Amino acid sequence: MSLVKLEKTGNVFTLTMDAGENRWNTALVDELIAALDEVEQNKGATALVTTGASEKFYSNGLDLDWRNSPDNFPEAGDPDSFHFMEFMARMITLSVPTIAAVNGHAFGAGFMFALCHDYRIMREDRGYMCANEIQLGMIIPAAELSLFRHKLPAHVFYESVQLARRWGGPHARDAGVVNDVASMDELLKKAVAKGEELAPLAENRKQFAIQKENIFGENSILNDTNGAAFHLRTKARYPK
After folding, report:
1. Nearest alpha-carbon partner for 15 in 59, 53, 49, 57
2. CB 230 within 8 Å of CB 140
3. Per-domain residue ranges for the chain?
4. What is the pTM of this model?
5. Which CATH architecture fits 4-198?
6. Is the pLDDT of residue 76 over 90?
């Protein structure tokens, strides 16, 4: 049974996660990687929308039952092949525009996945986005903290990762966690329309990807302590 469905309408691929609560394990990551391969092979104007099949869950975080007892869940895959962080790095630097249509709860790794998109639209009447690791007695890995810090305003970052605040749709929009909200009936339609709007950016795919690397990759410009004048004088350091 497939955990991921990928469809294309116009210039927009819609990726639907269909694994119940869409908890993260090797089986899910492997299917998502295959879907990204197909999306990036498409030439010209392209965008990707992701959503969940459930009316309650976009993604409810790491598959903790599998992580704690992997032998009891062989269908979830080999934990030694769980390339989760590498997948998230690929997602945040994907060479086409990405839109998350957050149809329900996005907790922990699900929240992280949503933040890896370029644009987020959240269901306005139901569901929360929350980094709840601290509530579970877990420490958020440094790599994940870096993602949250890059993607969220400073006060929202702290409330999210340290105080485990749950962000509902309108509050998430007002805080800058998501870009927009919509009713459940309009959510996917709105996300696909945004995808069509942004898809032409992928016609300059190499440049689109390089700029993401400059923002989020090695020696990220967001972390650099040098000022603008320095960068203006040393422009040759950066890819063209």
Report:
1. 49
2. no
3. 4-198, 203-237
4. 0.93
5. Alpha-Beta Complex (3.90)
6. yes
